[in-house]
Amino acid sequence: MALDDRIAADMDMAEGLAQFCRETLTTADTAFDAHMAIARKLGGHWDGEIASFGFWTPELLDNRVPDGDVFLEVLSPVEPLDLTRAHQELVFERAYLPVARYEAHTFAAARGMRAGRRDEGGDFYTLVWRDQNDEWHRILDPLAMSLPFGVMAPAELYDVAAMRAARRDTAFWEGFAGETPRKFGPPANILQIHVPTATAGGTLASLTRHYERLSERVEKGLNRDPLDELFLGYDAVQLLPVEPTTVYETGPDFWSEIADPDDHHHVTVNLIRPNTTNWGYDIVIAGMGTVNPVLLESGRPDELMDFAAALHNFPTKPKMLILDVVFGHADNQGLRALNPHFFAGPNMYGQNLDYKNPAVRAILLEMQRRKVDFGADGVRVDGAQDFKWWDNQAQELRHDDEFLQSMADIEQEAAGTRYRPWFIFEDGRPWPQEDWELSSTYRAVIETQNDDDVFQWGPLTFAHNTPFIYGYWLSKWWRIKEMLARGSNWISGTANHDTLRRGTQVNPKLNINTRLGDTRMEILEKAYDNPAVSMLTYAAFPGVPMDFLNATARGNWGFIRNQDDKYGIKVVAEEAISLKWQVDAYHYSIPGNFTRLKQLGFETREELKRFFEFLPALVEVTDYDVDHIAKLLNGVEPPLAGPGHFTVRDLKEIARAWMDDMHEYCNVFNTVSMLNPAQTGFMLKLRNFRRDNMWLRGNLGPEDHFDYLQPVDGKTIFTSYRKGPGKEVFTITHMEGGPSDEFDPLRLPIPGLKGAGWRCVLRTPTIGEDYLSGPIVLHDSMGVVFERT
Predict the structure, then answer these.
(1) Read out DSSP for 232-246?
(2) Nearest to 185 by CA among 473, 398, 488
(3) Nearest to residue 71, comparing CAs of 14, 153, 7, 128?
(4) Which Pfam families match (predicted)?
(5) How does pLDDT run across 459-503, given as a tens digit for each residue?
(6) What's 519's DSSP letter?
(7) Contact 753, 728 (CB under 8 A)
(8) Distance CA 173, CA 182 (A)
(9) What is the set of domains in the chain, with CATH numbers?
């Protein structure tokens, strides 16, 4: 049946939505209250018979567009659309439906449309308007629930109710049902995961299958291998952002149309399956309520709900799902996807959002509500210090703590159960003030929020922590004392997506702790998967420990983003130093590694290293004049490896190749065969110890003790005595420096240590299992934990 015959506008419903909008804006207590109610109607909705659509469209008022020039555009493929194909060209039928408007809102409704599901595709839609020159303009849906071709393409009408009804963790949620919303609290620990580099498949479906296999192995009591141990022992999984990110600046577009001026009812569309690589934080705000199509093996958002179910149904104990929400900025590409009223001006990342605009404020919170309703038990808010608004009266920027509270107050629903998730805020205010590392308390949100279980990232978790520089641990002593006194609501641990990325940017000529390894790769890997640091984090420090999968897998990581055209060369120049930390000649020579760069003429690591010695310097001295950079590179003697004669196009191709090659190189499955069973087994025991001793999350009490052995004598050795309910834990860790003299840890003059009954329950891997107590010599990264009940 032709599209025009299949669908029909339902103007009664569209006008009813416009009337609801008018009444709400007229009668609500505040404009924000009104927009919160209206936001629930925005986006595309399907009730089984009627599709309804709502858009916030102030740009139509700006351009004085009359009602007769605004339509809902519906696009339906004439042949089945296969979202698993890399490329296809299809003819779409097109229909234009009338709309109903009230001020800055536009609504439409239709009967006969097809809503997408897991096993079938739906119709696509946008809002369009015609100007006085008969040129058409599109308004994309920022609250769409399915974006198979990204945020710069029409959205797919999706049957969200059917997706929720089919969720596989209904029993988990029903167990929390009650008269009041369930409030989730903190887990024992967290595993942070970047989906594209976590499995060989690089999708949510692939990660789900991995957890389902792991569940089956645990249920059957099978022996654990090192790969199993990487993922076990965690109460929660935090995914790096899964919302849509930027697209290629200069193409190709994932949805591009070939119009026939003589046929307005059909359009040929060239479709490319989204294939960008990104670390997750380059977002455009639009589409935040759904899932990045790059992460979807099937192209269906159901995969995120499937992953939530795999965690919630995990045998022995359900695992929490924590989603990372990025509302602190928008990439400049957001200007293409959203109307100008969303933005409050540029910043170092792209664009500030206009948080004080009640419509923007409400839409952001509605996006968050829809995303978390996929089944997340926790939310981590990225860059909360960037949520600011301009106080015109005081002529200064102010932090929007009220908005942060609104984020934490949102009530979610899954399988009929109302709940409120656990919240973590990353907030380093007064960053970017120059002295922020000194002046930040890392408690600004904790102290203003209503809930007493709100967490922030702690001081050793922030980006600029480099635990492989000599003197690091004693230089952070004042921060460690703060953690001990009031770190119960901090995320702890030194290895995450930010710290590992910053670690790869450190100048290797600094005072590096060479006792961590014989090569730079070994030093970096051990610095962020250090048994002594982990022992300190899990057995001594308060708070909730977090590990990053790429760090515990001794894998690689960096700033991964292949969409840039204008600044791609500059970004790669800044990342070039990571070659010295993460890639040696052997790993570069492996046939499957760095294939694109090899094809461009960099056959060996040394050839690429030489090119990377020149590129950053020329980016700086030319003030990023790419034409001048290419000219200077061509004058190098002896000539550089690569294309032979450098052009700007060549440099952009090299930058893209670096990003794509590094993305593949960072996949943790590249290092699985090299995992050390002693290290992965130790880390699992350490995590289970923390789960068995949840009281360690609390701040140190009056009977507890933490200090370092003095005199230092060229080494930093921390001692921790903690007394809990019916149990005492004594931890001693060698953090850096030369070996200790032989000594008996249990005979140190530490309050509370005297007496018998201590037993050694944890030893770092280089200490034999036969060590029970008595004299020992500790070297860098070694430690032991004793327990007494």
Answers:
(1) SS-SEEEESP-S-B-
(2) 488
(3) 128
(4) GHL5
(5) 999 877 899 999 999 999 999 999 999 999 999 999 999 999 999
(6) S
(7) no
(8) 10
(9) 3-165 (2.60.40.10), 180-245+280-457 (3.20.20.80), 463-487+497-543+698-789 (2.60.40.1180), 568-665 (no CATH)
Angle between helix 605-621 and 626-634 (nearest 10):
130
Question: How many other CB atoms are found less than 10 A from the CB of residue 233?
Answer: 20
Q: What's the start-to-end Cα distance of the chain, in Å? A: 76
Do the beta carbons of residue 47 and residue 146 sit within 8 Å? no
| pLDDT > 90? residue 263 | no
- Can you tell me the distance from the alpha carbon of 321 to that of 318, in angstroms, rounded to the nearest whole number? 10
Residue 509: CB atoms within 10 Å: 7
In angstroms, the CA 493 to CA 503 distance is 14
Cβ-proximal residues to 777 (8 Å cutoff; 6+ apart), any chain: 739, 740, 741, 742
Cβ burial, residue 181 (10 Å; 0-12/13-18/19+): middle
Residue 268 pairs in a beta bridge with: 91, 258
Q: How many Cα atoms are found within 13 Å in the side-chain-facing hemisphere of 652?
A: 13
Helix 401-409 × helix 358-372 angle, to 10°? 40
Q: Is 204 helix (H, G, I), strand (E, B) or coil?
A: helix
Pair 293, 148: CB distance under 8 Å: yes
Distance of CA 214 to the CA centre of its chain: 23
**Quick one: DSSP state of residue 782?**
-
749: how many CB neighbours lie within 10 A of its CB? 6
Q: How far apart are CA 471 and CA 460, in angstroms?
A: 14
State the pairing for strand pair 378-381/422-425: parallel
How far is the C-alpha of 189 from the C-alpha of 543, rounded, in Å?
Answer: 9
Rounded to the nearest 5 degrees, what angle is found at the Cα of 483, between the Cα atoms of 477 and 487? 175
Could you tell me where the DSSP H helices lie in 622-676?
Answer: 626-634, 648-665
Of the pLDDT bands very low, low, confident and very high (cuts 50, 70, 90), residue 259 is confident
Instruction: Please return the burial class of 57, using the count of CB atoms within 10 Å of its CB with bins 0-12, 13-18 and 19+.
Output: buried
Helices and strands counted in the chain (H then E) = 28, 32
Sign of the CA dihedral 752, 757, 760, 761? Answer: negative
332, 326, 351, 353: which is closest to 342 by C-alpha? 353
Q: What is the DSSP string of 567-584?
A: SHHHHHHHHTTHHHHH--
SS3 helix, strand, coil % of the chain, rounded to 5?
35, 20, 45
pLDDT in tens, 291-330: 999 999 999 999 999 999 999 999 999 999 999 999 999 9
Dihedral over alpha carbons 299, 304, 309, 310 (to 10 degrees): 80
Question: pLDDT tens for residues 392-421?
Answer: 999 999 999 999 999 999 999 999 999 999
Burial of 759 (0-12, 13-18, 19+ CB in 10 A): exposed
How far is Cα 583 from Cα 135, in angstroms, rounded to an integer? 52
pLDDT in tens, 699-740: 999 999 999 999 999 999 999 999 999 999 999 999 999 999
Please tell me the distance from the alpha carbon of residue 395 to that of residue 73, in angstroms, as a whole number: 44
Which ranges of 507-577 would DSSP assign to H, the alpha helix? Answer: 520-527, 531-539, 549-552, 568-575
Per-residue model confidence as pLDDT tens digits over 26-58: 999 999 999 999 999 999 999 999 999 999 999
Amino acid letter, residue 177: A
d(CA 509, CA 11): 70
Of the candidates 691, 657, 378, 706, the one whose C-alpha atom is nearest the C-alpha of residue 536 is: 706
Q: What is the pLDDT of residues 512-557, one digit of tens each?
A: 999 999 999 999 999 999 999 999 999 999 999 999 999 999 999 9
The DSSP letter of residue 191 is: E
Q: What is the pLDDT of residue 776?
A: 98
